[in-house]
Design brief:
This protein has 2 domains: 240 residues, no CATH class; 238 residues, no CATH class. The chain is mainly alpha-helical and 481 residues long. It is built from 19 helices and no strands.
């Protein structure tokens, strides 16, 4: 029985294992690109840089392990089947904990071992190695925090990605408190968390694990989930009127249906994207409206993570919840179903991207630096660096959305589609940098910086529309039964 449970939980965490391997490869690939650009490439620097970058990926992997623990079975409706089998809940819990904790511990041990060996070959002193390990300890505490929160949320959530997202969101209060303690109160060191902060993060993470375990053991037959499902079904009937319509399902009912599928991720994503503008809003309320270019850049960078998450959730959740089987028997026109997805998912990302770029242009043109307008020349191209970087990231965020949308529609692995969508964003940034460098060296009088931006943005819009259109058509043609 234990062997069967381990195999079942391995299939649950299979996408997380694959996503972790992709993130590890991406970390070493990014280290390779950075070292090649700086002319410092060697085996020692490549291993050390890649192992150092894996600590950022570890936070995401920890959140995914916690989020997939219970919510994946609930999303597939297999939790009710397991509840009536003669399998003790404690044994089910033990296999999940052993797999998740062992994978995270192995991840960190291998990363730290590679880092120590690489630093030794680079000739770094013992004090420098200790500082690197001390920095790793901060990320280990952050990983434990997001893992525990995601584990606790997964015990009652319907979507594993939503639970993982909630775990990552738990880091924001810690980072804000760290910034206040460092910059305003001068209570903590700038580079590291203090010992009480590390202990608090670890205790909250462990407490989240215990809370999730208690909730899992207490709700044996999934009664809480069935009650929520019935409430959701009654709300759907009230929102749409009737389960079927004689003249076809109205477009607004389909829009409402698609919005409800990703309501929680959309609301959380909007909060995350707008969170860096908190200082701007505070200044506006006090009568001092000053837009920070750094806040705009951070907000756009967060879009590269949030947009593909939305796309994967919309295309994957409908299939995972078997809503497609219900929709197939309704008189719904294919064009209406595709239009509703366009309206739900494209409206928010386009508005947020335009808002961030507009605020960034406003901050740049008001800041006394070279304005980004029609008079900008290729000789001044690098001077408004924040605007150039922000435009590249905004294009990358939209391409990430399109890639995640298409891949989530083609297959059943939503997590892999989201990871590949996120990785498509830096690829688009590299394409932007390469084409802009080539255009500046070309020196064509007709291809001004403004014309280059307009042409590139138009090409990106066409590519994203092609990805989204293809993904929507493929998703509408797929049958689950």
């Amino acid at each position: 029985m234990i062997k069967a449970l381990f195999w079942k939980d391995y299939r649950i965490f299979r996408d997380v294992f694959a996503g972790g391997l992709v993130l590890i490869a991406a970390s070493f690939g990014m280290a390779f690109l950075i070292l090649v650009m700086n002319g410092e490439l060697s085996w020692a620097t490549l291993l050390g840089g890649g192992a150092s970058l894996t600590r950022f990926a570890a936070i995401l992997v920890g959140a995914l392990f916690g989020g997939y623990a219970f919510a994946f079975e609930r999303e597939e409706r297999s939790d009710l089947f397991l509840a009536v089998l003669p399998i003790p809940r404690r044994k089910q819990l033990q296999t999940k904990l052993i797999l998740a904790v062992s994978a995270l511990a192995l991840y960190w041990l291998i990363s730290m071992a590679i880092l120590v060996v690489a630093l030794g070959f680079m000739g770094v002193s013992a004090e420098g190695i200790w500082l690197s390990l001390r920095s790793m300890l901060d990320f280990m505490a952050a990983t434990l925090l997001v893992f525990g929160i995601a584990w606790a949320v997964s015990a009652s959530a319907r979507s594993p990605l939503t639970a993982a997202f909630a775990g990552i969101m738990a880091l924001f209060p810690v980072c804000i408190a760290q910034a206040i303690a460092t910059g305003l109160l001068d209570l903590e060191p700038f580079y590291f968390f203090s010992a009480p902060t590390l202990a608090g993060m670890a205790l909250v993470g462990i407490g989240g694990v215990f809370l999730g375990n208690y909730h899992f053991l207490r709700n044996r037959y999934g009664s809480a989930w069935m009650g929520r499902f019935r409430s959701w079904r009654r709300g759907r009937v009230r929102a749409t009127g009737r389960p079927a319509f004689a003249n076809g399902t109205p477009l607004m009912a389909l829009v409402w249906k698609d919005f409800r599928l990703i309501k929680a991720p959309v609301l959380l994503g909007v909060v995350v994207v707008l969170l860096p503008h908190g200082w701007t809003l505070a200044g506006f309320l006090q009568g001092d409206f000053v837009v920070s270019p750094g806040a705009c850049l951070l907000s756009i960078a967060l879009c590269t993570l949030v947009f593909p998450f939305w796309a994967g959730q919309l295309m994957g959740t409908e299939r995972a919840t078997r809503a497609v089987e219900f929709l197939d028997v309704l008189p719904i026109a294919k064009g209406a179903a595709r239009t509703s997805k366009f309206l739900v998912l494209l409206f928010g990302p386009v508005v947020l991207s335009l808002l961030d770029v507009a605020l960034l242009l406003y901050a740049n043109n008001r800041g006394g630096v070279v304005p980004f307008d029609g008079q900008l020349t290729w000789a001044q191209w690098q001077e408004p660096a924040e605007v150039i970087t922000g435009m590249a990231l905004s294009n990358g965020a939209l391409v990430a959305l399109g890639v995640a949308w298409l891949l989530a529609a083609r297959g059943d692995r939503t997590l892999m589609a989201i990871v590949l969508g996120v990785l498509a964003s830096p690829v688009m940034v590299v394409v932007w940098a390469s084409l802009s460098t080539w255009s500046s060296e070309l020196g064509n009088s007709h291809l001004t910086p403004r014309n280059f931006v307009l042409i590139f943005d138009l090409a990106v819009v066409l590519v994203v529309l092609a990805f989204v259109g293809a993904g929507t058509i493929i998703g509408s043609r797929r049958k689950t039964c």
